[in-house]
């Protein structure tokens, strides 16, 4: 019979300790916006900023709103944005995205619904982590979606490669059975910069 102490040691030996991301690199990380495309982020309506501690960066939109209703155009029910970013990283480091926080405001009449979709990937690599969430009316409130990735599943920028970071987002509103005389909308924008999409970095040192 295995003693209690031996059994405890055997149990501990089977515990898998997940990998831990490295601390952020020194110095200030910068991000260049290479291209901006989409009806939800017309030229001059999207801005990117890196946090002082290099742990995250934010994307702020000022005109990202999808809507249906009597004064809406036929194409207003869907808005999207594609950002192509060059993240300038110190030599010897690479990064991935551990978490993304999306925020906005929605007013959905009873019978209507709104959907938020998002994905991100490195240039030349597959866009295989698409996620979406749908809200049903009646609703008139702020909304938030958080996409988390386990540390062991984070995809990192290949060390030594030059690949930009792509972000695709979409807002869609379906009037459904709601009153056609009333407007429903979903926004991921803010005129005062208080609503931001936050992407949390995961850092790792490249092998020498």
UniProtKB/TrEMBL annotation:
Protein name according to UniProt: DUF4360 domain-containing protein
Q: Where is the signal peptide?
A: 1-21
Checking PANTHER family in the record gives: PSEUDOURIDINE SYNTHASE RSUA_RLUA-LIKE DOMAIN-CONTAINING PROTEIN, PTHR38847
**A Pfam family recorded for this sequence:** DUF4360
What keywords tag this UniProt record? Signal
Name the species this protein comes from. Lentzea albidocapillata
